[in-house]
Amino acid sequence: MGRSVARLLAQKGASVVIVARNITRLEEALEHTAAGAIQKSQRFHSISADLTSPTEAARVLSETTTWNNNTPPDIVWTCAGSSYPSLFIDTPVSQFQSQFESNYLSAAYIAHAALQLWLKPSHPETSTTTKQTTSSSIPPPPRHIIFTSSVLAFYPLVGYSPYTPVKSSLRTLTDTLSQELLLYPSTPTRPAVIPHCVFPATIFTQSYVEENKTKHPITLKLEEDDKGQTPEEVAEASVRGLERGEEMVTTEWLGGLMWTGAMGGSRKRGWGVWDTVVGWVVLVVFGWVRWDMDRTVRRWGRGVRMEIKPKVKG
Question: Which of 8, 56, 81, 172 has the fewest CB atoms lying closer than 10 Å?
Answer without folding.
Answer: 172
